[in-house]
Amino acid sequence: MSVDDVLSSFDQPMGLLPLPNVVLLPEATLPLQILEPRYRAMVRDALSDDALIALALLQPGFEPSYYTNMADIYPTVCVGRIREYVQIQDGRYFVSLFGLCRARVQEEDRHGEYRLAVLEPMVSPDTGVDADGEYAARGRCQQILSAQEFESFEGISHLRAFVHGGTSLAKIVDKLAAHLLPMEAFEIKQRLLEEPDVLQRAETLVRELKMIQQALETRQNSLEQWPHFGSMN
Questions:
Q1: Are residue 115 and residue 142 in the same domain, yes or no?
Q2: Which one of 15, 105, 149, 183 has the fewest beta carbons within 10 angstroms of its own beta carbon?
Q3: pLDDT at residue 164 above 50?
């Protein structure tokens, strides 16, 4: 399903899955275990239609309202499609949710079994693109990705080839963020999700990746400086 296909689904409210400390980005795949009956119903309804679900990050202080439909969320969400799923005998679902596009919550229906949201897609403009800025940002992504510290990352060869291909900068930034930022960096991921300017997203991502590179370099230097003792035989 392409983003263009997804846009036609915005005519109807979409199931909204609010989670703590988890952010889905476009180009990312997120494995989820669906436990609660309300969210099992959401998945079941989505699978009977277009398999689309909007994943939202809960705002701080959500705990007292978590088991209700009233907990506050960040209004910028990611629409994902269920690519694979398994339902086991006790009713739980194991799903693989693939991020498709950004969207903003315009209004919600919180009176049903689960939350439904009317969404507005965040579509990047086709005009007014800063070609020089995109070229420079792509170069910075290529440069940071070539660092030796990332050599051991899973799929690094594929990511390097992806960055050097003809893909748009927006997809490059989302894919790198999805694969290289750690799961606990959900606040950074939410910032990337909310930022409409792809050049600003690229700048934020490169800055974060440089910090990861520096941390990995420091760790490697510490290991190399660790004293080596000879055999006592």
A1: no
A2: 183
A3: yes
Q: Which amino acid belongs to residue 66?
A: Y
Euclidean distance between CA atoms 84 and 179, whole angstroms: 19
Distance CA(193)–CA(221), nearest Å, equals: 34
Q: CB–CB of 97/29 below 8 Å?
A: yes
Q: For residues 109 and 31, state if they share a domain.
A: yes
Residue pair 35/92 in contact (Cβ under 8 Å)? The answer is yes
Amino acid at 189: K
Query: Cα(183)–Cα(173) distance, rounded to whole angstroms?
Result: 16
Query: Is residue 84 in a domain?
Result: yes
Burial of 227 per CB tally in 10 Å (0-12, 13-18, 19+): exposed
Contacts (Cβ under 8 Å, ≥6 apart) of 153: 159, 179, 180
Confirm whether 154 is domain-assigned.
yes
Residues 17 and 115 in one domain: yes
At position 150, the amino acid (one-letter code) is F
* Domain region containing 110: 3-121
pLDDT of residue 10: 85
Arithmetic mean of pLDDT, 53-77: 96
Q: 169 with 107: CB under 8 angstroms?
A: no
Most confident of 125-129, 148-152, 192-196: 192-196
In a domain, 232, yes or no: no
Query: Of 227 and 147, which is predicted with more confidence?
Result: 147
